């Protein structure tokens, strides 16, 4: 088996970020036709994904996976850089101990294996990826992602009147009053992605298009990473006690637009196979369900410091206790938002 290692002189062109500070990918290694390793570097403290001293958010790993898939899509599967990617389903697990900060930048290796790549005429593709993340010998997390990639001409046809990102971006109203930042594990109100509705388990999606991390360039719809952040904040706001998110299983059913309100509702869900508490979050816009997610948590006090190796998981394991991953067969016209 041959292996090719590459460093990236301008990774921004691959990972969908305008500002260099938000690019996490620093290199990659090609192992086989289906397996690559992408190396990312996390800062000692990230402006958004380190919401409190001592620990990174699990979504820093999710964002790392998003960037890794964007890279290998283009470099290993000959999908042009101009194609638009969208996630349909993701099952994700993080090891909170591995997300503890160390006071210095940390490198993580993401081993990416694609079990399915289905190409369609006119250039679209549907892919299934399995990712295992490690920091040295410590297991950091895993994910299974079903996603698609479309040429610009097909994507614009799917998006219709929303295809122009600048015009769609301009339709976003001024951000509403946020819920108190401390309720969602934040110190800066600007980082809050929820607005109160008066109901204890229902929130409005708060979109601040001037946020330098969540929106570092115009989008034609609300990105999936913003939706995942909002869902996680909704769980924190309704937990009643300090908890740490350890995993989620999410289905994106429709794009979430800027020009209409979106409401998130939380409800208790049965514990997973590991007996950890879970919460279901559903989101609706224009009287239809746009995404659903099942989020697993542990009490914050039970998260140990990151010392020594942790037994590795496999991306196919049901780490969130949510059952078998979805098939990712949502119709193209209801494709997932680009994370």
Tell me the number of structural domains: 1
**Coarse shape:** globular
Q: Work out the radius of gyration.
A: 19 Å
Stretches with pLDDT under 50, minimum 5 residues? 307-335
Commentary on this structure:
- With 339 residues, this protein is an alpha+beta fold.
- The chain has one domain: Hotdog Thioesterase (Thiol Ester Dehydrase, Chain A).
- The protein has 5 helices and 13 strands.
- It has a 13-stranded antiparallel beta sheet.
- The radius of gyration is 19 Å and the shape is globular.
- The chain starts with a strand and ends in a 40-residue tail after the last strand.
For the structure shown, list the relevant keywords.
transferase activity, A-factor biosynthesis hotdog domain-containing protein, Thiol Ester Dehydrase, Chain A, AfsA_hotdog_dom, AfsA-like, alpha+beta
Helix and strand arrangement:
Layout: E1 4-7, H1 12-15, E2 25-30, E3 35-42, H2 58-76, E4 84-94, E5 106-119, E6 125-135, E7 138-150, H3 152-159, H4 165-170, E8 194-196, E9 202-205, H5 224-238, E10 243-252, E11 262-269, E12 278-285, E13 288-299
Antiparallel strand pairs: 1-2, 2-3, 3-5, 4-7, 4-10, 5-6, 6-7, 8-9, 9-11, 10-13, 11-12, 12-13
Domain A-factor biosynthesis hotdog: 14-131, 184-293
Region (Disordered): 173-203, 312-339
GO molecular function, one term: transferase activity
């Amino acid at each position: 088996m041959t292996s090719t290692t590459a460093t990236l002189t301008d990774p921004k062109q691959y990972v969908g970020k305008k500002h260099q500070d938000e690019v996490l990918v620093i290199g990659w290694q090609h192992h086989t036709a289906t397996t690559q390793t992408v190396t990312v570097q996390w800062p000692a403290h990230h402006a958004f994904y380190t919401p409190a001293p001592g620990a990174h958010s699990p979504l820093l790993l999710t964002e790392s996976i998003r960037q890794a898939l964007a890279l290998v899509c283009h470099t290993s599967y000959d999908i042009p850089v101009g194609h638009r990617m969208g996630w349909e389903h993701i099952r994700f697990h993080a090891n909170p101990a591995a997300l503890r900060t160390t006071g210095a930048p940390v490198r993580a290796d993401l081993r990416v294996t694609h079990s399915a790549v289905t190409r369609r005429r006119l250039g679209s593709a549907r892919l299934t990826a399995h990712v295992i993340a490690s920091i040295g010998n410590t297991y950091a997390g895993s994910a299974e992602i079903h996603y698609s990639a479309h040429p610009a001409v097909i994507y614009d046809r799917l998006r219709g009147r929303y295809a122009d990102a600048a015009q769609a971006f301009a339709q976003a109203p001024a951000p509403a009053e946020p819920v108190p930042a401390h309720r969602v594990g934040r110190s800066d109100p600007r980082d809050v992605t929820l607005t109160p509705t008066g109901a204890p388990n229902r929130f409005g999606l708060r979109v601040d298009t001037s946020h330098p991390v969540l929106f570092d360039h115009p989008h034609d719809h609300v990105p999936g990473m913003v939706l995942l952040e909002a869902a996680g904040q909704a769980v924190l706001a309704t937990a009643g006690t300090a908890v740490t998110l350890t995993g989620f299983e999410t289905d994106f059913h429709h794009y979430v637009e800027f020009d209409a309100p979106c409401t998130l509702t939380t409800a208790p869900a049965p514990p997973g196979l590991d007996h950890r508490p879970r919460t279901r979050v559903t989101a609706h816009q224009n009287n239809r369900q746009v995404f659903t997610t099942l989020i697993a948590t542990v009490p914050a006090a039970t998260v140990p410091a990151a010392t020594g190796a942790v037994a590795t998981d496999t991306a196919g394991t049901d780490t969130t206790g949510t059952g078998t991953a979805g098939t990712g067969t949502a119709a193209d016209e209801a494709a997932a938002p680009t994370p």
